[in-house]
């Protein structure tokens, strides 16, 4: 499988899940400014005409887009790991509800001045406005994580990797974890997972490299 990603973007969620899954995969970096990949050689719109990440190319060459759907696809393929429950079980629907909630209520509201594809102007006010919008939704998740480490049955599964991207964005945007103690604990625990640590270290190297390139060019 091939994951098309951008550093720090929502593609981090399927990247973590692929690492958790023990499936064989490669990653392809997308330049969201130029909408190209393969060092600017290839047009990313040929992969995903919606021109955002993530996108997943399956082993049979299908292209799957939409983060929550990619998460379910990877989780289902990882038959040796319990990343999503059997279709139509109570647990499965709980996991589906979380994937959808994170995609629609958190991911899309987590717009910020410096994220790509935003409609808000790059101002402090916009940043505060986005926080106001996500805070009530984050508080809902925080309550659900009371005395629990993971969202469903207190066991790691696909939606946890997606939620981690949201808590990672709280850090990146320098938002506050005030009144979100359970989410903060969740974020800390997730960072201790081997797969998460590995993917984050890889992402850091990429960010470092990107900054280096920018500095060299300035
Ligand atoms: N509905 C999409 C949204 C994906 C999305 O917003 N991706 C952002 C990164 S987190 C992106 O690539 N933005 C670039 C752009 O829209 O130009 C999904 O769930 O996968």
UniProtKB/TrEMBL annotation:
It comes from the Bacteria. This is Glutathione S-transferase. Residues 88-210 form the GST C-terminal domain. Residues 1-82 form the GST N-terminal domain. Belongs to the GST superfamily. InterPro entries: Glutathione-S-Trfase_C-like (IPR010987), Glutathione-S-Trfase_C_sf (IPR036282), Glutathione_S-Trfase (IPR040079), Glutathione_S-Trfase_N (IPR004045), GST_C (IPR004046), Thioredoxin-like_sf (IPR036249). It holds the Pfam family GST_C. PANTHER family: GLUTATHIONE S-TRANSFERASE GSTA, GLUTATHIONE S-TRANSFERASE-RELATED.
């Amino acid at each position: 499988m091939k994951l098309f990603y951008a550093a720090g973007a929502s593609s981090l969620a399927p990247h973590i899940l692929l690492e958790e899954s023990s499936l064989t995969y490669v990653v392809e970096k997308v330049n969201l400014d130029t909408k190209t990949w393969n060092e600017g050689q290839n047009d990313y719109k040929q992969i995903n005409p919606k021109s955002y990440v993530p996108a997943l190319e399956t082993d049979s060459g299908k292209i799957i887009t939409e983060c929550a759907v990619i998460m379910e696809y990877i989780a289902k393929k990882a038959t040796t790991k319990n990343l999503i429950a059997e279709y139509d079980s109570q647990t499965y629907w709980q996991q589906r509800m979380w994937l959808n909630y994170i995609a629609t209520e958190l991911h899309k509201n987590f717009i910020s001045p410096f994220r790509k594809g935003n409609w808000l102007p790059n101002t402090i006010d916009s940043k505060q406005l986005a926080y106001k919008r996500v805070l009530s939704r984050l508080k809902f998740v925080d309550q659900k994580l009371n005395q629990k480490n993971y969202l469903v049955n207190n066991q790691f599964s696909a939606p946890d990797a997606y939620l981690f991207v949201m808590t990672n964005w709280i850090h990146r945007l320098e938002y506050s974890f005030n009144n979100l103690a359970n989410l903060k604990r969740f974020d800390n625990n997730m960072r201790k997972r081997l797969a998460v640590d590995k993917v984050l270290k890889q992402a850091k190297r990429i960010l470092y490299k990107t900054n280096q390139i920018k500095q060299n060019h300035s």
